[in-house]
Specification:
alpha/beta; globular; 26% strand; 206 residues; single chain
């Protein structure tokens, strides 16, 4: 596993605040994290994460999904996070085909060669969901899949992000609204919003 550092820019939500917020939490993040393997496996099933695919993990945090990628025998993972302290921890995780980059995904040019992009437990920290979805489409192959997911309900999400994370978060869009946003660039085939999870996923339009 290797690690790179790239510059980031600030817009909308003050990204300097985002970096400081997550840097401060990084050391205790894994101890406080609740990992529900069934939920994560369901999310990665919807995301099309399977043997041989190339995955872009956006806002990877400390690398909670890395062991799941390894078990699924993916070909490659590019994991990006804006917090240097989160990235330091992520880079020390399980040996798997992961390259970790410290940077702002919104300032990085899309490569157009990934099979899957996963944004897990992170969308409220991006100020422009539509702009992010459009930007991530540029990272994916034709027919590549974008998935935004959370392992909690919409109500739980909005309650959580109205607390100490309020200054670095926006309210989460209802899944149907996010699916409509996806629809400009993706054929949406999965919309789930229930008491335990939130998933919007679709394939890039040709």
């Amino acid at each position: 596993m290797n690690i790179q550092c790239l510059d980031h820019h600030c817009a909308g939500i003050d990204k300097k605040n985002v970096v400081e917020f997550f840097d401060a939490l990084a050391s205790g993040w894994d101890q406080d994290l609740v990992v529900d393997e069934d939920k994560i496996n369901g999310i990665l099933d919807a995301a099309g994460v399977k043997p041989g695919v190339r995955v872009l993990d956006v806002a990877c945090g400390t690398g909670v999904l890395f062991p799941f990628y390894a078990r699924r025998q993916v070909k490659e993972v590019l994991a990006v996070d804006i917090s240097p302290e989160m990235v330091k921890i992520a880079a020390g995780k399980v040996p798997s085909p992961v390259r970790v980059v410290c940077g702002d995904i919104e300032s990085m040019s899309g490569t157009g060669d990934f099979d899957c992009c996963v944004v897990y437990n992170a969308l409220p920290h991006f100020p422009d969901p539509a702009g992010l979805v459009q930007h991530l489409a540029a990272w994916l192959k034709p027919d590549g899949r974008l998935t935004v997911a959370h392992s909690m309900s919409l109500e739980q999400l909005n309650r959580h992000h109205s607390g100490r994370a309020a200054k670095v978060s926006l309210g989460m869009l209802p899944a149907e609204d996010l699916a409509e946003t996806f629809g400009q660039w993706f054929e949406v085939d999965t919309v789930v919003s229930d008491e335990g999870k939130y998933i919007v996923s679709g394939r890039k339009k040709g």
